[in-house]
Amino acid sequence: QVRLVESGGGLVQAGGSLRLSCAVFGGTFSDYAMGWFRQAPGKERDFVAVISWSGGSTTYSDSVKGRFTIARDNAKNTVYLQMNTLRAEDTAVYYCAADAESLLPTMAHEYDYWGQGTQVTVSS
């Protein structure tokens, strides 16, 4: 059974930075494309970023491009999301997800496994 555990969320002022981590237990981490999604209250779960199984390719949503960076360490079975220049509109629960079939999936339904989420709150 594959389990994903996010950490690193918290409260930060606008303009600040946070780094989220997602550790994967079970399965073969290097088989998975790893994505980050976020969900604000009353809104749908939105794509944020994805990294290919090798780490050689990434894709970002337009809203975070240039501010967020996704990275992975296959030796540590962990994917990261470095978030810089945070804005109030980045406030959401952030989820990591794993997909064993697609190179760079951007749709939530493509993912096989999900973490429980970590809250990020940006105060303006």
Structural account:
It is a single chain. The chain is built from no helices and eleven strands. It has strands spanning 3-7, 10-13, 18-25, 33-39, 45-51, 58-60, 68-73, 78-83, 92-99, 113-114, 118-123. The strands form two sheets. Strands 2, 4, 5, 6, 9, 10 and 11 form a seven-stranded mixed β-sheet that branches. The protein is globular, with a radius of gyration of 13 Å. The model has no long low-confidence stretch (mean pLDDT 97).
Quick synopsis:
This protein is mainly β and 124 residues long. The protein is 0% helix and 50% strand.
User: Based on helices, strands and strand pairing, what is the structural class?
Assistant: mainly beta
Cα distance spanning the termini: 40 Å
Anisotropy-based shape: globular
Counted by DSSP, the helix tally is: 0
Order of helices and strands: EEEEEEEEEEE
Regions with pLDDT < 50 over 5+ consecutive residues? Answer: none
Largest sheet: 7 strands, mixed
Classify the helix fraction into a percent range: under 10%
Q: In what range is the share of β-strand residues?
A: over 45%
Oligomerization state of this entry? Answer: single chain
Rg over CA atoms, rounded to whole Å, is 13 Å
Average pLDDT across residues?
97
Number of E strands:
11
Describe this protein with a few key phrases.
124 residues; mainly beta; seven-stranded mixed β-sheet; four-stranded antiparallel β-sheet
